[in-house]
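Late entry, written up from scratch paper. The run itself happened at the end of the previous shift, but nothing got recorded in the book at the time, so transcribing now.
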Amino acid sequence: MSILIGMPCYGGVVSDKTTNSLFNLAKIFVRNNIDHGILTMANESLISRGRSRIANFFINNTEFEYLFFLDSDVGFDANDVLKLLSYKEEIVCGAYPMKTVPLKWNFTLSEPRTMKGSLVAIERIGIGFSLIHRSVFGKIVEKYGTELKYFPTNESTTHAPTEREKENSYHYFHEMKKGNIYLPEDLSFFTRARAVGVQPWMDTSISLCHVGSHVFQED
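Output as recorded:
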């Protein structure tokens, strides 16, 4: 079992809670002999392109079994990543609150509701704490490869594309048009995944935090 952590972090900014969580996660990986690596994307201002660049690096330049998308403002219990790995699902995620008061969550459950222990089937979710098996990307390419294939450049990024990436890159997170709107990049990805027969799951026992800013002032 092996895992690459892919973390978009525009401007190189990573929250303290995320940093502490990663520190503890690395110790757990070492303790459990889990092969792991991390890829950050610091200067990509277009999040859809940044996520696709991370996915293409993972596919073309590594042998890791899983890609774990972690947003740089999400805090977590390191043991929860081991829980995600233990399920051996193609996609399994944790939910974190949106940056709103009162709190809201960005996920949609599948109907009819389906449970497997603490897992619930979902249609889509914010992808900032999501474990994705390598096979998912291959299935998406089989169905959407013609429309998603593109040539990556190193504009606005810290990682120049390798030769394999230049030949074999797909915009997995390209925004899909649905009616008169475009879906966000993560919801577009889950829509494609479900269309190729991959069922995403959410672990309801995982509690995450989402770091943001808040303006305090008198009325």
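The chain is about 35% helix and 25% strand.
(Scratch paper discarded after transcription.)
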